Amino acid sequence: MKQIISGLFLALLCAGTASAETTAPSMDPIAVGPKIYKSLLDNPKVRVMEVTFAPGAKIGLHSHPDHVGYVLNGGTLKINGAEGKSQLHKLKKGETI
Predict the structure, then answer these.
(1) Which of 51, 57, 84 lies closest to 70 in space, CA to CA?
(2) CA–CA separation, 41 and 58 (whole Å)
């Protein structure tokens, strides 16, 4: 069985800062990874996305405002930062990140 990482990310922000309109299109995760990020709700106060990484899936450089995530299915996620450092995260079902 293929292992996937799926999470529901909630951006809890002040009015006027949650929309993709305030993020450069080239850095917006939905624009950069439309097969990974799915918009569930997007308004001036909050942005809710479902995020699903298939095994081996990659996404280009993007940014997030302050956010919180809830892991629906566990897995391992490697994040490569813009400065070249990598972080490996082992995420468990039900975990909040």
Answers:
(1) 51
(2) 23
